[in-house]
Each structure stands twice: as C-alpha cells, then as structure tokens.
Amino acid sequence: SSKQQMISVLISFFFFQAEDGIRDAQESRGLGDVYKRQLLDSARNFLEVDTIKRTLDAMMYSRLNVLHWHISDDDAFRIQSKAFPGLNHPQFPFYTDNEVKSIVSYAKERGIRVIAELDQPAHTFSWKRDANIGKFVIHAPHQFQHISTGLLDPTQKEVYEIISTLLKESQELFPDKYIHLGGDEADFKIWDRNPSVKELMKRMEVKNYEQLQVLYTKIVRRILDLQNPKAVPIYWSNNATLFMKYNKGDVVQWWGDNNELPEIMDQYKEQIFIISSYDYYYLDCGLGDHQGRNSWCNPFLVWKKIYSAEIPQNLRILGAEACMWGETVDDDIIDGKIWPRASVLGETFWSHTKEQIVGKVARRLAAHTLRLKARGIRATPITTSYCIRNIKECFQKETF
C-alpha cells in the first residue's frame, strides 16, 4: 500500500519530518470527566485470563474505566506475534489473539477501554529470543542486575521495520486510539559500548545519547502516524527523561514525584498528562523487588496516602493511573495488592470535591471492600472488624 511504501522510505533514509499539528482533536476534560486507570503488568509474572477479567470486574465496581496493559518487558513478550513467533518462547506463556480479543471485548462490555503498552527502546531483552530481532537488541553483560537490560540498536533500519510490524499487529488487537510506547529507563551505558551507535551519532551530528533517543522516538512516532493518523501515543516520563520532545497533543504519563508535576506541565505546554506519581499511585511500593531487596520506593502506600494526593485543577490532565507492577505478584495475591486501594482513585477522580473527614472515607471504603469480596474479589480489609463497626471511635476527628 502507499502507506507502507511511505513507511519503507522513512526507514530507509533514517529520516523524520516534524508534524505541524494535532492528529486528532483532544477533548478538554475537567476532573469529573477523566480517565481513571489501572495498570496491570503481566510481563513480569504471567496472569491468567480469568485473573485479568476479574480485575476488569473490580474496575467496573470501582468506577475505573481504562486498563493499561503492560504486555512486554525484559522478562517476556506476552502477546502472540505472527510476524515474529520467536518472541513467544514456550517457557514463557503468552496470550493468543483470541484470548486478547476476548479480554478487550469483556472490558468493553463493562465500559472499560484496554490500552496496550509496547515498551521500547528499553526493556526489550525478551526480544532477543526471536532470531530475526535478537541481533538488533543490545544488552547489558550482567543481564538482570540492571533496571533495563535490553536496548534496541537505533542505528539499524531493520529495527524500525520491526517496530512498524509490531505496532501494526498491536493495533489490530487493541483498537483504542491510544497506544503506550514506553520510552523510559534507557540505559545509555549500553549504547555507549556499541561502536555502530557512536559511528551513527558522529555521522548524524548527534551530540549525546539524549538526542539519539529523541531522534529514535520521533522516527517511531512518525511510523505510527503514517500507519494510523488518529493514533495518540502515550510516553512514560520522570526526571530522567525531561530531555524528550513530544508532538503536540501527545500524552505524557508522569511517574516522578507528585510535587514536581506542575513544573513539568509548564515545561510541556502542548501535551496532555496522566498522573501516575510513584509516591501516591505505585501500588508495588514497599513490596520488595525481584531480587529480595527492599523496594526502590518505600513505604507501602496505604489508602489514606493515595486519597491525600493533590490533584491539579488543569484541563490538560487526561486522568490518573494506579500502577500494579508485577515483579512480586501473581494470580494468587494480586487482588489483595490492588483492591481496595485502587478504588480510592475512582472516588477522588470522579468527585469534584474531596472529602476532608477520614472516618467518612473509611466507612465508604470498608463497605466497598465488603461488596468487592461478596462479588468474588479477594480484597484486603482496610481495618479491623471492630473499627468497621466503630468508625468514629477508631478515626475520631482525623482529617486529610
């Protein structure tokens, strides 16, 4: 097709053209009309289809309306790829096309959108399992000692052909206009050990690795636009990625310190934001890491902490997202790690005004926890049975 020819030309000449405007008009959203999201990570530990559907049920009960599905990482590539079957290694379970479609359909019936994340250029060590892709993945020598052990080689035009194919496959399974393109935690030391990367930077007059990632991202962004002009990409962002440049109307998902959000929004004046500040919305904080060490983020986020988050009154905020990263959770315990804490997000982002009396929120959340349990969700109690019956005594006049 003519679109595919244009993509091929783009890749062959290692060239991108800046966009002039928004591809798809963004809606102005007040805090009563936002995306209330839940991240589910089945890349680290595989989650059964029934577990994902049970999570969707809990989301519906808790008024969360977007599932952000983290389906690929260094550990595994979890959706079926017909173009690159080696990505689906038999030792690492994956979801077939039919299973993905059933999950998307199940979510739609419950008023929930499913947005997939194709995490790249970092977090791609699992891509090495495919013979046609592996040679284009640069990795750290000590593998999982690093935050991200796989990093795509941006100097090879085949990389962009691979990305183009995977984006096409992903959009066939996930019809939502939003698609998450990752973009965080690129370990530049990995690129620094690769002579071809340094040669390309010299030839293209790219001064540093930050500029190289900007160039890579713009090429991938342009590929996406040629495939689907209505697609809207989402990118992770924190203090380590403030050098990045995005198109007007692109979505920035902020996972840095919540207090820094207003300043970051001022830096990216033409972008839309999703709030996922780790200090309020990372549900894995305090659970420990995959090597038995303390979590990089502590302490554990109790429901009162999540409720107390300051929400900027800004029409460029698309919504907020509670993130359940999956290094140390599986089918058996995930319900209790998410619920009812993520339900707090549903309340704070549905309501125009926040409740100031802790006891009133505790009463509602305790009742909601019991409803979740009655409906088959293995939610964790927020307090003792005595305090549930004696809210005023246990919480007295405490305020947020």
Brief write-up:
36% of the residues lie in helices and 13% in strands. It has 15 helices and ten strands.
* Helix-residue proportion: 25-40%
Euclidean distance between termini CA atoms: 58 Å
In spatial order, strands of the major sheet run 1-2-3-6-7-8-9-10
Number of helices: 15
Low-confidence stretches: 12-33
Report the structural category. Answer: alpha/beta
Shape: globular
Mean pLDDT: 89
* Largest pleated sheet: 8 strands, parallel, barrel
Write the H/E string, N to C: HEHEHEEEHEHHHEEHEHHEHHHHH
Radius of gyration, Cα only, in angstroms?
A: 21 Å
Strand content: 5-15%
Number of DSSP strand runs? 10
Description of the molecule:
This protein has 400 residues and is an alpha/beta fold. The chain has helices at residues 2-12, 49-61, 97-109, 157-173, 188-192, 195-204, 209-227, 261-267, 278-281, 303-307, 334-338, 341-350, 358-374, 385-389, 391-395; strands spanning 35-41, 66-70, 113-120, 137-139, 150-152, 178-182, 232-237, 251-254, 272-275, 317-324. Helix 1 (2-12) runs antiparallel to helix 7. The longest helix is centred in the middle third of the chain and has 19 residues, at 209-227. The chain starts with a helix and ends in a 5-residue tail after the last helix. The model is unreliable at 12-33 (pLDDT under 50).
Strand and helix map with partners:
Blueprint: H1 2-12, E1 35-41, H2 49-61, E2 66-70, H3 97-109, E3 113-120, E4 137-139, E5 150-152, H4 157-173, E6 178-182, H5 188-192, H6 195-204, H7 209-227, E7 232-237, E8 251-254, H8 261-267, E9 272-275, H9 278-281, H10 303-307, E10 317-324, H11 334-338, H12 341-350, H13 358-374, H14 385-389, H15 391-395
Parallel strand pairs: 1-2, 1-10, 2-3, 3-6, 6-7, 7-8, 8-9, 9-10
Antiparallel strand pairs: 4-5
Helix pairs in contact: 1-4, 1-7, 2-3, 4-7
